[in-house]
């Protein structure tokens, strides 16, 4: 299924979250057959950031690759909360993360789980599976 990913400025994300269910409902009605998601623009700073000339202080934790990828995951599934995560490392070296979502939103998002996984893989190049907490 096709998906539309809207990238919003990070500073406006909290305001988007307040009206996100309405926006998504209206946009999914307008673009029938497509899932709509809102993700914030975030900056990833490299490990050598603190060695650059003119930089004061270390790299903020919120700008690390891991933290940005976790935040993207939270943005994708927004109205639902992430209850738990498990990372599975296979013998061949591939990693798959299994994300457990809150059960109370199961009927609203169950059809979107596959889209969440494919959009996350496109944005971060990481494999992820979604499931509901038992």
Mean pLDDT: 88
* Alpha-carbon distance between the two ends: 26 Å
- Total number of helices: 4
Strand content: 25-35%
Q: Low-confidence stretches at least 5 residues in length (pLDDT < 50)?
A: none
Considering DSSP H and I runs of 4 or more, what fraction of the residues is helical? 25-40%
Element-level helix/strand string: EHEHEEHHE
**C-alpha geometry:** globular
Question: Tally of extended strands?
Answer: 5
Radius of gyration from the alpha-carbon trace, in angstroms: 17 Å
Major beta sheet summary: 3 strands, mixed
Structural class label: alpha/beta
Lateral strand order in the biggest sheet? 3-4-5
Identify the quaternary structure here. Answer: single chain
Description:
The chain is of the alpha/beta class and 134 residues long. It has helices spanning 13-30, 65-76, 106-109, 113-124; strands at residues 2-8, 34-40, 82-89, 95-101, 127-132. β1 (2-8), α1 (13-30) and β2 (34-40) form a beta-alpha-beta unit. α2 packs antiparallel against α4. The protein starts with a strand and ends with a strand. The model has no long low-confidence stretch (mean pLDDT 88).
């Amino acid at each position: 299924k096709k998906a539309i990913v809207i990238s919003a400025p990070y500073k406006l994300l909290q305001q988007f979250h307040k009206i996100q269910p309405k926006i998504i409902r209206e946009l999914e009605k307008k673009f029938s057959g497509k899932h709509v998601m809102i993700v914030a623009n975030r900056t990833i700073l490299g490990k050598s950031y603190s060695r650059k000339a003119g930089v004061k202080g270390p790299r903020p934790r919120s700008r690390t690759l891991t933290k940005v990828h976790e935040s993207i995951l939270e943005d994708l599934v927004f109205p639902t909360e992430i209850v738990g995560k498990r990372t599975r490392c296979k013998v061949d070296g591939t990693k798959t993360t299994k994300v457990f979502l809150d059960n109370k939103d199961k009927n609203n998002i169950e059809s979107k789980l596959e889209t969440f996984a494919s959009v996350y893989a496109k944005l971060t190049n990481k494999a992820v599976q979604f499931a509901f907490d038992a």
